Hints:
Blueprint: H1 24-42, H2 46-54, H3 60-81, H4 84-93, H5 105-140, H6 149-179
Helix pairs in contact: 1-2, 1-3, 3-5, 4-5
Amino acid sequence: xxxxxxxxxxxxxxxLKVNQAGVIPIIFASSVLMFxxxxxxxxxxxxxxxxxxxxxWGKPLQTTLYVAMIIFFTxxxxxxxxxxxxxxxxxxxxxxxxxxxxxxxxxxxxxxHVMTRITLAGSIFLAFIAVLPNVIASATHIxxxxxxxxxxxxxxxxxxxxxxxxESMIVMRHYEGFMK
Length: 180
């Protein structure tokens, strides 16, 4: 407090997303699972055809592997793209901290722990959205009508990003007149 004005004491947040990987894990998982089926179309070997028949879209083995691969690729992609140690170092460098956590390595460990839990929820959500069309098709027994969970994720992601850009433009225009 200086006089009747308060300085400092800003509160902020660390931008950790639940779905940090986006639709990339779904694309990776479907590509890996479609590879044996594609190869089986060109090769006339009985055991390859048998393996490909179990990996046809919507079969129980394919769905189980699809979910497992989506969860794996979500963790993998998040680990590659999110640098927790850099985030902790930037917090320390710019004077930020997490209440109750010491700066440096303890902050990195805490952020890693939190990110692991958030990624689990995100990966299960991605797997659910990706498998939802199969579940709906088998429950309703309607074939030939296919809506993609991936397309839904892309549309929602683009809408959210557009809203963020519009909001930042509005804020920028509001402050542009104030700064001149």
